[in-house]
């Protein structure tokens, strides 16, 4: 198997996995610091998905750090298949959670803007009456 940059067990793969872990932690931190994220199921799903992404990336970062130290090659077909399936699952969950959260955010903002416009329209109408 060829040694592509970013494959498991390479020195380039380590910063990629660490950056995945950091960005997942940042996503969790930004959602958890909002006062009412738990009121929406999609935001809770995003927290759970990013938690899984962070754990998966951290474990693979440990493997990426361990392999060069011990001069191990992580290109066994079974291991590579496990990495591919794990990355595919976490990527699909992350995409679904981000899309659902974005949809709820747009729905919330449109509803909020409509309520403000309705309130302004009613107050304007009452002024003329």
In short:
Homodimer and heterodimers. With 129 residues, the protein is mainly alpha-helical.
Task: Write a concise keyword list for the protein shown above.
129 residues; 0% strand; elongated; 79% helix
Description:
It comes from Rhamnella rubrinervis. This protein has 129 residues and is an all-alpha fold. It has a domain at 13-98. The protein has 3 helices and no strands. The chain has helices at 13-32, 41-70, 77-128. The longest helix is centred in the C-terminal third of the chain and has 52 residues, at 77-128. The radius of gyration is 22 Å and the shape is elongated. The relative contact order is 0.13. The model has no long low-confidence stretch (mean pLDDT 84).
What is the H/E order? HHH
Report the biggest beta sheet as strand number plus sense, adding barrel if it closes: none
- Kindly report the average pLDDT value: 84
Distance between the termini: 79 Å
Low-confidence stretches: none
Percent helix, as a range, is over 70%
How many runs of DSSP E, i.e. beta strands? 0
Structural class determined from secondary elements: mainly alpha
Overall geometry: elongated
> Given the structure, what is the number of helices?
3
Oligomeric state: single chain
- Structural Rg: 22 Å
Strand residue content:
under 5%
Protein name: CASP-like protein
Transmembrane segments: 12-31, 43-68, 88-117
Domain Casparian strip membrane protein: 7-108
Subunit structure: Homodimer and heterodimers.
């Amino acid at each position: 198997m060829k040694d592509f940059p970013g494959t498991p067990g390479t020195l380039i793969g380590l910063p990629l996995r660490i950056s995945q872990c950091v960005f997942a932690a940042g996503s969790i931190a930004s959602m958890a610091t909002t006062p009412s994220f738990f009121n929406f199921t999609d935001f809770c799903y995003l927290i759970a998905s990013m938690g899984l992404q962070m754990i998966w990336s951290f474990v693979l970062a440990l493997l990426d750090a361990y392999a060069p130290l011990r001069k191990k090659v992580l290109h066994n077909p079974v291991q590579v298949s496990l990495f591919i399936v794990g990355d595919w699952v976490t990527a699909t969950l992350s995409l679904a959670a981000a899309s659902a959260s974005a949809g709820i955010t747009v729905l919330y903002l449109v509803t909020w803007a409509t309520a403000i416009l309705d309130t302004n329209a009613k107050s304007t109408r009452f002024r003329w009456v």
